[in-house]
Design brief:
Number of domains of chain B: 2
Number of strands of chain A: 5
Structural class of chain A: alpha/beta
Helix content of chain A: 55-70%
Strand content of chain A: 5-15%
Oligomer: heterodimer
Strand order of the largest sheet of chain B: 2-1-3-4
Largest interface: A-B, 111 and 112 residues
Largest sheet of chain B: 4 strands, mixed
Strand order of the largest sheet of chain A: 2-1-3-4
Distance between the termini of chain B: 27 Å
Radius of gyration of chain B: 28 Å
Structural class of chain B: alpha/beta
Largest sheet of chain A: 4 strands, mixed
Order of helices and strands of chain A: HHEHEHEHEHEHHHHHHHH
Radius of gyration of chain A: 28 Å
Chain lengths: 368, 371
């Protein structure tokens, strides 16, 4: 035990003395969470609108004012001619052009109905769908206001409740995602690199001939990263609760337990990579390309797993981060307890055991 | 002249490496085949849990209309709101539609009625779009009923405004059309950003940089010799990307290929210069990797690649002005989908020029021959 501790101390000193890397390891998750949490929102807002008003009457001007006043739109240009629409779109100056035909108000009064053309830049399909809906509702709101009260309106008022995340904040998605990614980065990548570097520089030999059993050499390498990850977990949670207002709605012990299992899993992965990769660059590329990208893309951190084709959904089952992120979302945001994450916990534990077994089988205590 | 030898050395180093050439070729192929499938915000097959307290003719008609809309899948019928919410909690459903008692009666009698839509919006996109779709279907249903109660000729209701949407540039609302051009930018960032970032620092770790430092090779020559190989590799990756986009996704740029390559040339210079600068400032490959990873994540997520720039707060929109990715992504999408020409994209071009100059200037200045 004493030997083990002195080895762990050596590793810890290694990390602590490299001030820059330490700063990166501890500062990066905070910077990312704060940045993404505040900056990224999937709510569609401030869409740039250009107005092509051929009517120039009271009604068209009023609708234009309503659009500009709404927080979803920002009127940026007034066009004179339909020929100006195309160049405007091509230069990306506006995403929506609202066209009022000549005699807009008259036809509204005379025939009881009028037409507004909404020309949308549909390059981004979701955004276009949403802002078209907003623009339509601004126009119909105006129409309803100006209806004679006698006409009986037939309508269904949908009361929309956005559960868990009423402001559609990106932070709710990013806190679990960044946690899932950082743990992998810190544990898997750092452990694998530090083991491989020891081999590259030749100092591994010194460690392996010491009286400490090889397995403890490796465990001692992992211990400081485990500690570091726990610090990261704590800071990320504190920042998300106190700075981003993303609460831990469910049981904190459940969250911590799942995180511990996930950290262990990431460490096991790091060990596995170190047995495969021969050089530091290879270790980085393997952990970078084979782990980070699938995590970012397939774990549900950015993109909903359900909209992926079946084959990718199937692959995503094999990605540990997917289960971790799902569990964190359940506990942190939906406010659920232990029972709800039992499945994720079981899967993550199973994966950990598997990775440890494979890594130990591949681990060579002899130098060729 | 000396540049030629330096370049020869760089190319030999790249092609004698076991990993690098494979990654340079395989990565773009795999990425462009898999990413667009995964990077999909398309919302479909929303699982809807129904709480129907009314059980009238009108409510079952509404449900049929929702099912026929194609966006929704009825996952469950729940007896009350509580059990519906628990089905959202256990992730069996994404949304709950609650129809209150007397829904049909009110609708025909007083003309107004209400429904409650509760959407799981942990994932903001899905929650937002899903509830917008459902509100749309409900509004359409209300229109239908109105027509039946007041059978006036269409549009003759007093003061109705008809909005006619026209979807330009991506009329079928295909997600790939928007993602594939932008993903090529991401690919270039990964390959032409990470490899240079690891390059100089790996020479530092191995000690081979000393051998260069003692030669009369100038700073700019040295940086140029590191830059040019990635420039060529980047253009190659870009070409692979263009071919895959054509063959697999049937995407052909409406604008000119020349514009695309012009922007790519500048962009690769900018991002490789950035990588080299990071490499100069790092002591170990680990550090370089981390710093680069951080910036690539930030560049990617805050460039408008996945979420629209216009929905960011002011200060975050300001940061996109120093983000080379956002200019190139905008340019790629404009050329591919809108057929924008060089003249339309001049502001983006000038901004990228500035980025390339600053980053490479920084790379040259931060390279020190003394330790």
């Amino acid at each position: 035990m004493e030997r083990f501790l002195s080895f762990a101390k050596k590793e810890l000193l290694h990390i602590l003395r490299d001030k820059r890397t330490m700063l990166l390891l501890l500062g990066m998750p905070i910077a990312q969470i704060v940045l993404f949490g505040f900056a990224i929102s999937t709510e569609v807002g401030n869409t740039k609108v250009a107005i092509l008003d051929l009517a120039r009457d009271e009604a068209s001007r009023r609708i234009e004012r309503d659009l500009d006043a709404s927080r979803y739109f920002e009127v940026v240009a007034h066009l004179e001619d339909a020929a100006e629409v195309e160049p405007l779109f091509r230069r990306g100056k506006a995403s929506l052009v609202v066209v009022f035909q000549d005699g807009f108000r008259e036809s509204l009064l005379r025939d009881g109905s009028a037409e507004i053309q909404l020309i949308a830049d549909a390059t981004d399909p979701n955004t276009a769908t949403v802002f078209l809906q907003y623009a339509t509702s601004v126009a119909t709101a105006y129409a309803r206001e100006n209806q004679p009260p006698a006409a009986a309106p037939v309508g269904i008022v949908p009361q929309v409740r956005l559960l868990y995340n009423p402001q559609l904040k990106g932070a709710y998605n990013f806190v679990p995602g960044v946690l899932g990614m950082m743990m992998l980065l810190v544990c898997a990548m750092m452990t694998s690199i530090s083991i491989v570097r020891e081999r590259e520089t030749g100092t591994m030999e010194v460690l392996l001939v010491s009286p400490v059993r090889p397995i403890f050499v490796i465990l001692a390498k992992m211990a400081p990263y485990f500690l570091l990850s726990c610090v990261n977990l704590a800071t990320v949670l504190l920042v998300s609760v106190f700075v981003l207002d993303v609460p831990v709605a469910g049981s904190l012990p459940a969250l911590v337990l799942v995180s511990f299992v996930y950290i262990l899993l990431a460490l096991a992965l790091g060990l596995l990579i170190s047995t495969i990769a021969a050089t530091q660059v290879a270790a980085m590329l393997v952990s970078g390309m084979a782990f980070m990208l699938p995590v970012i893309l397939l774990s549900g951190m950015m993109f909903p797993v359900e909209s992926m084709p079946a084959a990718l959904q199937w692959i995503s089952n094999a990605i540990p981060a997917r289960w971790y992120i799902a569990a964190v979302k359940d506990v942190m945001i939906k406010g659920l307890g232990f029972q709800s994450v039992a499945k994720e916990l079981a899967i993550l534990s199973g994966m950990t055991v598997f990775f440890v077994a494979v890594a130990l089988k591949n681990f060579k205590t002899r130098l060729e | 002249m000396i540049l030629r030898y330096l370049l020869e050395k760089e190319f030999k180093q790249i092609f004698r490496n076991r990993f690098l050439p494979r990654i340079i070729f395989a990565f773009p192929c795999v990425a462009l085949l898999v990413f667009p499938l995964a990077a999909n915000f398309e919302v479909r097959d929303i699982r809807l849990c129904l709480v129907d307290h009314d059980r009238s003719h009108a409510s079952s008609r509404l449900v049929r209309k929702i099912a026929a809309s194609g966006y929704f899948k009825l996952s469950r019928q729940a007896p009350d709101h509580r059990s519906a919410l628990s089905s959202v909690e256990s992730d069996e459903s994404d949304m709950v539609l609650q129809i209150p008692p007397g829904f049909g009666r009110d609708l025909v009698g007083t003309g107004t009625s209400r429904v409650t839509i509760s959407a799981n919006s942990v994932d903001g996109v899905k929650g937002g779009i899903g509830s917008a779709y459902l509100s749309g279907v409900v509004a359409g249903f209300a229109d239908e009923i109105r027509q039946e109660i007041h059978p006036e000729p269409a549009g003759a209701g007093p003061g109705r405004i008809e909005t006619v949407p026209r979807l330009r540039f991506n009329p079928h609302l295909r997600y790939e059309s928007m993602m594939v051009p932008a993903l090529m930018v991401m690919l270039l960032t990964m390959i032409c950003g990470f490899l240079p970032a690891l390059n100089i620092v790996s020479e530092k770790e191995k000690g081979t940089i000393e051998q260069i430092n003692v030669t009369p090779v100038g700073k700019s020559t040295f940086i140029l010799s590191k830059l040019l190989p990635y420039w060529l590799i980047g253009l190659l990756v870009m070409s692979i990307g263009l071919v895959i986009a054509r063959l697999v996704y049937g995407l052909v740029p409406l604008g000119s290929l020349g514009t695309i390559y012009l922007f790519a040339c500048l962009y690769i210079l900018a991002i490789s210069g950035f990588g080299l600068a990071i490499s100069n400032h790092s002591n170990t490959m680990q550090q370089a990797m981390f710093v680069m990873f951080f910036f690539v994540m930030v560049f990617n997520l805050m460039s408008g690649l996945f979420t629209p720039v216009s929905s960011m707060p002011e200060w975050a929109q300001a940061t996109t002005r120093i983000n080379p990715l956002s200019y190139f992504i905008e340019a790629m999408r404009c050329v591919y989908l809108k057929g924008s020409g060089f003249r339309d994209l001049q502001p983006q071009f000038l901004a990228l020029c500035a980025c390339a100059l600053v980053m490479n200037g920084w790379a040259v200045l931060s390279y020190r021959k003394t330790t």
